[in-house]
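Methods: holo model generation. Sequences were used as deposited, without trimming of termini or removal of tags, and paired with ligand SMILES retrieved from the corresponding compound records. Each pair was processed once, and we did not select among multiple samples. The sequence and flavin-adenine dinucleotide SMILES for this entry were:
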Amino acid sequence: MTRPIAERGGLALDVPLPDVVVVGAGLAGLATAHALAQQGRTVRVLEAAGAVGGRMRTVREHGCLIDTGAATFPGRGGHPAIWRLVAALGLDRDPASVPPVRDALAVWRGGRARPNAGRPLGLVTGAGLSPRARLDLVRLRARLARVDELDPDHPERARIAEETLADLLRPYHPDLYDYLVHPMAAGFFGWDPRRSAAAPFAAHLAACGGSHTWRAHRDGMDALARALASRLDVTTDHPVTRVTCDGGLVQVESPRGTVTARAAVLAVPAPVAAGLYDERRPAAREFLAACGYTPMLRVSVVLDRPPVPRAGRPSYATLIPEAEDSLLGVITLEHLKHPGRAPGGRGLVTLVPSPRGCRELLGAPDRAVVQRLAARAARFLPGLPADPPRALVHRFRYGLPEATPRALKLRGAFAARPVGAVEYAGDWVSLRPCAEGAAASAALAAERIGAHLSPERRAAAGSRSGERR
Ligand SMILES: Cc1cc2nc3c(=O)[nH]c(=O)nc-3n(C[C@H](O)[C@H](O)[C@H](O)COP(=O)(O)OP(=O)(O)OC[C@H]3O[C@@H](n4cnc5c(N)ncnc54)[C@H](O)[C@@H]3O)c2cc1C
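and the model returned the structure below.
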């Protein structure tokens, strides 16, 4: 079909009408476009930023590969949708291109980093937990193993869906909250366990299977996004300002012109999607409004040589519990992921503030952010300069979707909404704050758009993707 797809200064251009416009070239948008292209659909992807990847971007500066957002992902069982994409794109043909992250996680306690956190055996034998807390961890794991339908793709179905993380941990030794769950939820997701629902976190951890499975893309965590984008029609620097649906066609507006298509997928964070499109389906509207995000901030510091930790073998990531420092949440040694990350024997360190630190620092000038975090981090990494000359600040207003019990409650109806010309993709769709959430949402969005564009498939897909409430 040929229709005008772009109007600039009143000039209509006769070019083919794409079946689908995908807004956002993060992992969810690119994976959706890839799945639609596999169905034989014509797809255009419009991205506001100057590069693809969204929260999985890697920048190349000071000779280093610097992941700005997502840093690692678990093995095949933990992130199946990601590994399916990795395999489809041939990125695992050379196993060295997805190397394991060794000695992945430690927790700081009593003046030193306690290794083996996040490993089932490590947690039982130590990792900074008192003997009583370790026993309680066994009890907690046994309780979670009995929870029906603890499914990361459908967290609302779990029997603990109404509990917050703090509720879940209340009967157990306080160490479990203070030295394990709080530092993980706050440090990795920016979540406040007193607000955030227990089910998505517990289901995610159970599915991921422990920090000993962690991997990273040798060539940067944007490897997947770059490989997908190279096979697709993607336009960067194309900020979408409004999406409307009229007479069976979707109009996607931006200062660069209007693109018309038969359907659109909004693969942007939920608050952005709600601002772009006036959603009329009540179930979708309410869920979108309930999907909040926590902001995230990361500082990458390039050093002439790797810092030497206080004692023992260094771990990749060290969680800093609130009781140990109120401003700093996680320190990672990125050069441990692969020697190519910081060539020439250099060090590459990431400092992640606690949620409180993030709120304090999000609006501060870069230099002040770097100095405040570096001053705190020197206690944990002796020799870290107080004012590092090569540091980058990465800010995410919409860092991670925060799954609250209210959002969980509305998710079932959202998932069961009828298919439409405007669909959604993103980690928030399943309230799973990770790349797997984004990749899994893409498969679902492509299936729903396929059903919308093929009316004969609509009824069948409606009953398949219309998940149980
Ligand atoms: C600091 C941090 C650390 C993380 N660590 C990990 C980790 O180690 N492992 C893991 O699995 N996950 C991690 N995550 C989560 C993971 O990065 C995200 O879940 C995933 O990348 C989300 O992908 P997405 O496509 O849903 O959203 P995004 O990546 O946010 O993609 C949305 C895209 O839409 C674009 N966009 C926004 N508005 C518009 C508009 N108006 N017009 C056009 N385009 C627009 C954006 O620029 C962006 O490119 C981390 C996230 C952060 C922030």
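Residues 23-29, 46-49, 54-56, 69-73, 239-240, 267-269, 272, 296, 298, 396, 399-400, 426-427, 433-435, 437-438 surround flavin-adenine dinucleotide (CB under 6 Å).
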